[in-house]
Amino acid sequence: MRIGIVCDQPAMTARLRGAVVQAPEHQVTWTATSSREAVDRCGSHAPDLVLVVVPSAGIDGTDATQRIMGTTPCAILLVTMDGGAHGGPIFEAMGHGALDVVDLPALGSGAPQRSAALLQKKLTTIARVIRDRNGTRTPLRNAHKTASARCDRLIAIGASAGGPAALAVILAAVPKDFPAAIVIVQHVDAKFTAGMTEWLTSQTGLCVRVAQEGDRLVRGSVFMAGTSNHLILKGKDRLAYTPEPLDYLYKPSVDVFFESVCRKWQYEAVGVLLTGIGKDGARGLKLLRDRGHHTIAQDEATSSVYGMPKAAVALDAAVDILPIRRIARRLIDLMDKHGKTTTP
């Protein structure tokens, strides 16, 4: 991949460059020390991927992302070195179209091999997204108070790359008195989950919480998987974590949570699969549909990465295939005053 780096610290830029070129298939085509320079570079030498270091003394990651996506859209990977301590700016940038985030604490301490291994793993994943089967560039699209009543309706949502922005759109349109519990499994490093829940809360007005072992589902609650283990439904209305299965690529896995809903949930459920890399969640969404639950997949036009929803559509797992801004309306319609969901 041709990669641009946006960072105003020469030493950090050099370390990041060194980590990138550990793999011969990657090259750093340019560096920029400001948002304006990054936009100019993207316009004159379009990269496959831009690495934006956040936080940075002289660069606003949100501003850089917004400018790039607004003028010369391309894949953006945010790079942090603080273990997710600055979650707000990170998810603000993701809300404006940044594809993903990687934390490289060893980069700041001068341990290049550990940083390179973490970065190369992330680059390999992103390379699958931004290149089509002929090896050409694939354009990316920019996505644009807990109740105490017992719950008999559940909205189960899975997302990956591009998910934070998509989730913000859905949750912003959900009323505070929504008569269902919402559980989200988002592919993101566990160290960023708390920051993401805080950001979603600030964007939507709903109270989004990191799911804890034993949390009970109640109407109006919004929980997000928050460890490197799988989130599951345990018993009839409790959340739990498990390391099993051990061999899954993604932890937490959307499939694992959806499958636990099929096994344990005794009431009405709606499964939603949003933008993301790979196929996680497609099989689980199919199981939900086969059990008579309503299922929704985000459409291609509004998906930042049409991987997970595409896999679900291929399995005929989705009752509805909808643009992101229509999904919340559909959920509200399904949760009618009689508490019934209907499957055509």
What do you see in this structure?
The protein has 12 helices and 14 strands. It has 344 residues and is α/β, with parallel strands linked by helices. It folds into 2 domains: 2-130, Response regulator (Rossmann fold); 153-334, Rossmann fold (3-Layer(aba) Sandwich). Strands 8-9-7-6-12-13-14 form a 7-stranded parallel β-sheet, sandwiched between helices. A hairpin with a 3-residue loop joins strand 10 (230-234) and strand 11 (238-242). Helix 1 packs across helix 6. The protein is elongated, with a radius of gyration of 20 Å. The chain starts with a strand and ends in a 10-residue tail after the last helix. The model is unreliable at 132-139, 141-148 and 340-344 (pLDDT under 50).
Which key terms come to mind for this protein?
344 residues, alpha/beta, Rossmann fold, 2 domains, seven-stranded parallel beta sheet, five-stranded parallel beta sheet, 12 helices, 20% strand, elongated, disordered C terminus
Number of domains: 2
Under the CATH scheme, which architecture of the largest domain would be assigned?
A: 3-Layer(aba) Sandwich
**Major sheet strand order:** 8-9-7-6-12-13-14
Level-1 CATH class name of the largest domain: Alpha Beta
Query: Which segments are poorly predicted (pLDDT under 50) over 5 or more consecutive residues?
Result: 132-139, 141-148, 340-344
What is the count of β-strands? 14
**Portion in helices:** 25-40%
Rg from Cα: 20 Å
Task: Kindly identify the CATH topology of the largest domain.
Answer: Rossmann fold
Provide a count of the helices.
Answer: 12
Q: Which structural category fits the helices and strands?
A: alpha/beta
Order of helices and strands: EHEHEHEHEHHEHEHEEEEHEHEHEH
**What separation lies between the terminal Cα atoms?**
44 Å
Biggest sheet details: 7 strands, parallel
Instruction: Estimate the mean pLDDT confidence.
Output: 87
Strand content: 15-25%
> CATH superfamily of the largest domain, please?
Methylesterase CheB, C-terminal domain
Task: Describe the global form.
Answer: elongated
